[in-house]
Amino acid sequence: MRHEATSRLFERTDLDPMEIKAITGHKSLQMLSRYAHLRTADLADRLAGKRRGA
Fold first, then answer.
1. SS3 state of residue 30
2. Residue 11 contacts by C-beta under 8 Å, 6 or more apart in sequence?
3. Cβ–Cβ under 8 Å, residues 23 and 15
4. Is 12 within the bounds of a domain?
5. pTM of whole model > 0.90?
6. 19 in any annotated domain
7. Residue 53 lies in a domain
8. What would the pLDDT profile of 9-41 be if each residue is shown by its tens digit?
9. First vs last Cα of the chain: how many Å apart?
10. Has residue 11 been placed in a domain?
11. What domain range includes position 9?
């Protein structure tokens, strides 16, 4: 569940990684990155300029 929630925070909010790290309780950005697996379609939308959570 933590894994899923972390990934969705990245995809559906405009929180920055440090804010998400504080929410999830990860001790480092390296550990945070292990939990965040982003969907390819969402990454493509972000590259196209779409805001997260929109």
1. helix
2. 38, 39, 42, 52, 53
3. yes
4. yes
5. no
6. yes
7. no
8. 988 888 889 999 999 999 999 999 887 777 788
9. 23
10. yes
11. 2-47
Name the DSSP letter for residue 51: P
In this predicted structure, what is the pLDDT of residue 39? 78
Give me the amino acid identity at 33: S
Token pair in block for residue 2: 């933590």
Residues 51 and 54: their CA atoms lie apart, in Å, by 6
Query: Do 9 and 39 meet the contact criterion of CB atoms below 8 Å apart?
Result: no
Residue 51 CB partners (closer than 8 Å, separation 6+) = 14
Number of domains in the chain: 1
2-11 mean pLDDT: 87
Closest CA to 24 of 38, 52, 15: 15
pLDDT number for residue 49: 86
